[in-house]
Write a structure and sequence with these properties.
Blueprint: H1 2-11, E1 14-19, H2 25-41, E2 45-50, H3 53-61, E3 67-74, E4 78-79, H4 81-90, E5 93-102, E6 105-109, E7 119-122, H5 124-129, H6 131-137, E8 142-145, E9 162-167, H7 168-173, E10 178-180, E11 190-198, E12 209-215, H8 223-233, E13 238-245, E14 253-259, H9 266-276, E15 281-288, E16 290-292, H10 295-309
Parallel strand pairs: 1-2, 1-3, 5-16, 7-8, 7-9
Antiparallel strand pairs: 3-4, 3-11, 5-11, 6-9, 6-10, 12-14, 12-15, 13-14
Helix pairs in contact: 2-10, 3-4
Length: about 300
């Protein structure tokens, strides 16, 4: 009987993929989302670290996890192109929720003197978000990109002339010294994350935003204007528009847009229907709500879980 109850509990567990390893901002976002979900529904959540954003998204597209949490846009550096490109390529995922989380970077290193640092590792987005600070305080250092802010920490063990840009939470997890706090160039630095699910899952029927992506039938004068005029005609504001190359030929682009309207309202449905007539391919990633999350609550939860796991 006990085994039966355990099997039922496991089948009810929600699995969430995220960009690992442990200590990334994506994990903090996943922890924040799972904390809210557990408090509201009582549903057990299991987080699964993936080595890259595309692999995390692929896991949900293939049904290996229920959800994926990935960064999509930063207030300083703009869109996370890997997320956008993979979403268009897979065409098997929709947006369940969106979260905005404040991002605070620290400089981590075993160096006794910052002047001795010759290499700084981190994710390209994190390096860009701290570019001015790094140029001012570490002009001698070479910046090296890694797949995640936590992966950058692997380079610290062997060389005291090396530093990493990562979260202060990661510094606590891996017992690493912080040479400088809050080094991001803008104090209001924040990142938007999408909670993605498979298209086969039940779709949301309400929300504040709807996200679309489309390609154009021709690369000519007025082609993009025709599409944008649809939104203007229906009084729909765009909170974001971003172009990405189609990868078919130079000068051809896809366009990702976030609409400040539910795609399930009569106005939203009519606008999307009209948009079909002036686009080559149109993808509707769904209607969803956006919330702001506190990473400190997630870090507290993670710390409590680590303490409980100790023998």
């Amino acid at each position: 009987m006990e085994q039966t109850y355990r099997a039922i509990a496991l089948s009810m567990m929600l699995t969430i993929a995220y960009l690992g390893p442990e200590g990334t901002y994506s994990q903090l976002a996943a922890l924040a989302y799972s904390l809210d979900l557990e408090q509201r529904t009582g549903q057990a959540v299991e987080l699964r670290a993936m080595p890259s954003i595309p692999k995390a998204m692929q896991a949900t597209a293939e049904g290996l996890t229920n959800l994926t949490i990935v960064p999509v846009e930063n207030s300083t550096e703009g869109g996370v192109t890997t997320t956008l490109d993979t979403l268009w390529r897979l065409q098997q995922l929709s947006i369940h929720h969106a979260m905005v989380m404040p991002i605070r970077h620290g400089l981590l290193s075993h160096a006794q003197d910052p002047a001795l640092i010759r290499m700084v590792y981190s994710h390209p987005q994190a390096l860009s978000q701290c570019q001015v600070w790094l140029e001012r305080h570490l002009p001698q250092a070479k910046l090296v990109a890694t797949r995640s802010t936590t992966e950058a920490l692997e380079h610290l063990a062997d060389d005291k002339a090396v530093a990493a840009v990562s979260s202060e939470w990661a510094a606590q997890l891996y017992s690493l010294p912080i040479l400088a706090h809050n080094i991001n160039d803008h104090t209001d630095n924040c990142t938007k994350f999408w909670v993605l699910k498979g298209n086969a899952e039940e779709q949301r029927s309400s929300g504040q935003y709807t996200s679309l992506a489309f390609s154009l039938p021709v690369n000519g004068p007025g082609a993009l204007l025709k599409a944008l005029e649809v939104f203007a005609r229906y009084g729909i504001n765009l909170s974001r528009i971003e172009s990405r190359p189609t990868k078919r030929s130079l000068g051809e682009y896809l366009f990702f847009v976030d609409l400040e309207i539910s795609g399930t309202t009569p106005t939203g449905q009519q606008a999307i229907e009209e948009l079909l007539a002036c686009t080559e391919t149109l993808l509707n990633f769904g209607t969803y709500n956006l919330v702001t999350v506190d990473p400190s609550l997630a870090a507290t939860k993670a710390k409590a879980q680590s303490i409980q796991a100790l023998p």
